[in-house]
Amino acid sequence: MIYETLQILKEQLEKYLEDSGLGKIVVLDNVAMLESGSDIASDLEGKVIMTLLSVEEENTLKNLPTAKVVNNKTEYRNPPVSLNLFFIVSAYCDSYDNSLISISKTIEFFQGKRVFTSANTIYNRSNASMDVLESFKFNVEIYTPGFEVLNHIWGILGGRQLPSVVYKVQMIQVERDKKLATSEVITQVNGTLNNNTE
């Protein structure tokens, strides 16, 4: 679900920037590759690059119920893992002006659309990885790290700081389709109640 979430956001942002006259310039890739000197680095020139920074488990949802009734049988499963994703959008356009405009338009896009659902989002359903995606809902909000944290982020990513903005995606769920056990549903309790107080 991590790839699917970021791919959906990439497609949505790319359409917005294209409609704004900036062209199809959004890529989902590792911005650290700019310093690699490889062919990938040249592919990132003139682009707005979305890069996953971190994955964080949402601990508040660890104690969800693990049993549910399906077709009159109780199914027991491990609870899904709820995740928050942190990603950075970096602009490495042909000029610094265009990089700043791209970041401004990115902020504008996510300000206008914070909640993404299968009902309000158009995405490429012909992508083979999207076949398993039935329904989804996640929120995107801007995340502002301090200067020291930002310095560490760019140090990890290779040292060259670009115009950028960091976002947090709340919450996606990862769940394997695996039952731990199945049992019959308890529909009634038989017996007599003995209320002796002696």
TrEMBL record:
Residues 6-187 form the Pvc16 N-terminal domain. This is DUF4255 domain-containing protein. It holds the Pfam family Pvc16_N. The lineage of its organism: Bacteria, Pseudomonadati, Bacteroidota, Bacteroidia, Marinilabiliales.
